[in-house]
Design brief:
By secondary structure, the chain is α/β, with parallel strands linked by helices. It contains 17 helices and 26 strands. Helix 12 links the parallel strand 13 and strand 14. Helix 1 crosses helix 2, helix 4 crosses helix 5 and helix 7 crosses helix 9. The protein is globular, with a radius of gyration of 24 Å. Keywords: Fatty acid metabolism, Ligase, Lipid metabolism.
Length: 552
């Protein structure tokens, strides 16, 4: 029998519209046009101007012939231009590709070509690396250069007339442009590239629906009231800034842009603008705490991801007036999709016990349907005993569409109807999950994902290196750093400094191993490197150093 509640009750434009976060900005411009949306140095941008400039950008992209399915790449710092790109690009129907500003030219070139970028909007600070990337890329996008008033360093980079000026480009646009809603909320809004463990990075495609839902999920998770003030210590290129570029418009909040994460401008902004929320890796907390004699006059919520911060750091942040919450997620789930929700009674526990609880990744975000730790072979849930390892898996509307032009990787990631994170964890009796290892061999350093295999590939190209293996090493400042084990070719030697220099010439600086060990590398009888033994060696070395014993 047909369901009577489906008879004559079909979807139509009056009762069904695709979800998109773009409407948040339009709503604020209509209802709160004079509210301050963006603060950047001495610049103040209200919501009407923010909306107008986003539409102008969209209209100019449309005038270039860009539309649905086209890609606009942005190599930008945390600036007003980057916020405008998060609205203006999808308002033209195009897809935003936010490029990690710390990457080397070769990787940027691959991403531009793979994403088929039609336009590249680049900050003049990064124009040199962009030019190097374009010299070897298989695409030739139109280059538009953003001249940020807060970037005052002299540059010898060629910025002659063959580059469009961003502000001039936007100014020529139509502020009354009828921007495009997505035809379907499943339409792509962004593509972000992961640090894959093998081969080239994968392009994570996110849709309007997921961006809308995670943006609202941030409001609930971060307990953000209307008119909250958010300080941009998290890179906007990282998972689209965890969707906070869209979140702030949902609550008519204020973006405080921060071009460089330094202690003086952070504290100046915290005091001057009465910041209420900020996000970042544990390294950002260390930068904040490195300032002497600084305390807050108002409570500030700090959301951190990656490796759990040390107990000492948590205690110092609390003393300075910050409320720290631990999050977990991946680019494939739009950024944070798991939160260590804090129970009030936990405040009565000793600080050591609180630190242990804060180290856990937690429970699912409100817009995430299912989160569990499963046995990847049987796809059954592991016992909630805090001991049994399984793989963290996700289901829901804030899971990516898939990997761009990579059906094999997409099918593998969604096997069994779950998104396989590749992260190994346990589930505690109260349902909170806690990461224990990463099956992808990804090292998270300062909030950035580093592929151990990428480092190994570079080391193997050195003429003195016969065998190498890279594992993560705990680091108080960065959370984790790469630790490289090396066996030299017979009759050849190489120093640690020589290998660091070599790596620095072939990859981004943050990927260069911080430690090296020249020692035989353990293998199985079939020749497979046993990385678990190397991790044990790293752990033993750290324990030896802490006890004051000589290094082994």
């Amino acid at each position: 029998m047909e369901n009577p509640y489906n008879v004559g009750l079909d979807r139509n434009p009056a009762n069904f519209q695709p979800l998109t976060p773009l409407g948040f900005l339009a709503r604020n411009a209509a209802n709160y046009p004079d509210a301050i949306a963006i603060i950047h140095g001495n610049i103040r941008v209200n919501y009407q101007t923010f909306y107008d400039r986003s539409r102008q950008l969209a209209s100019q992209l449309a005038n270039l012939g860009l539309g649905r399915g086209d890609t606009v790449s942005a190599l930008l710092a945390n600036t007003p231009a980057m916020l405008e790109c998060h609205y203006g690009v999808p308002m033209a129907g195009a897809v935003l590709h936010s490029v990690n500003t710390r990457l080397e030219a070769a990787t940027i070139a691959y991403q531009l070509a793979h994403a088929q970028a039609k336009v590249l909007i680049v900050d003049r600070e990064f124009l040199s690396v962009a030019q190097a990337a374009l010299a070897v890329a298989d695409v030739s996008p139109l280059v538009i250069v953003y001249h940020d008033s807060e970037w005052t360093e002299l540059s010898s980079v060629d910025t002659d007339d063959h580059y469009q000026d961003y502000d001039e480009f936007v100014a020529q646009g139509d502020r009354a442009f009828s921007w495009l809603m997505p035809e379907d909320e499943w339409d792509a809004i962004s593509i972000n590239y992961t640090s894959g463990t093998t081969g080239n990075p994968k392009g994570v495609v996110c849709h309007h629906r997921g961006a809308y839902l995670l943006a609202l999920g941030n409001v609930f998770t971060a307990d953000m009231p209307k008119y909250s003030t958010y300080l941009w210590t998290l890179p906007m290129f990282h998972c689209n800034g965890w969707c906070f570029p869209w979140t702030l418009s949902a609550i008519c909040g204020t973006h405080v842009c921060l071009r460089q994460v330094r202690k003086e401008p952070i504290w100046l902004a915290l005091h001057k603008h009465k910041v209420t929320h900020l996000c970042g890796a544990p390294i950002v907390m260390d930068i904040i705490l490195s300032a002497e004699n600084q305390t807050l006059t108002n409570k500030v919520a700090f959301f951190t991801a990656a490796a759990p911060p040390p107990e000492r750091t948590l205690a110092q942040m609390q003393e300075a007036g910050f409320e720290v919450t631990h999050l977990y997620g991946l680019a494939e789930v739009y950024g944070p999709a798991v939160v260590n929700e804090w129970h009030q009674e936990w405040n009565l526990l000793p600080i050591e016990e609180q630190a242990k609880l804060k180290a856990r990744q937690g429970v699912k975000y409100l817009p995430l349907e299912n989160l569990d730790v499963l046995d990847p072979e049987t796809m059954s849930a592991v016992p909630a005993d805090g001991k049994t390892l399984g793989e963290v898996m996700f289901q829901g509307n804030v899971v990516m569409k898939g990997y761009f032009k990579n059906p094999t990787a997409t099918q593998s990631a969604f096997e069994g109807g779950w998104f396989h994170s590749g992260d190994l964890a346990v589930k505690h009796p109260d349902g909170y999950i806690q990461l224990k290892d990463r099956s992808k061999d990804i090292i998270i350093s300062g909030g950035e994902n580093i592929s151990s295999i990428e480092i190994e590939d570079v080391l193997y190209k050195h003429p003195a290196v016969a065998v190498t293996a890279v594992v993560s090493c705990p680091d108080e400042k960065w959370g984790e750093v790469p630790f490289a084990f090396v066996e030299c070719c017979e009759g050849k030697t190489v120093s640690e400094q020589e290998l660091k220099t070599w790596c620095g010439q072939h990859m981004a600086g943050f990927k260069v191993p911080k430690h090296f060990s020249f020692t035989p590398i353990p293998r199985t009888p079939t020749g497979k490197i046993q990385k678990f033994q190397l991790r044990e060696q790293v752990s033993a070395r750290l324990q030896s150093e802490e006890s004051g014993s000589p290094k082994s």
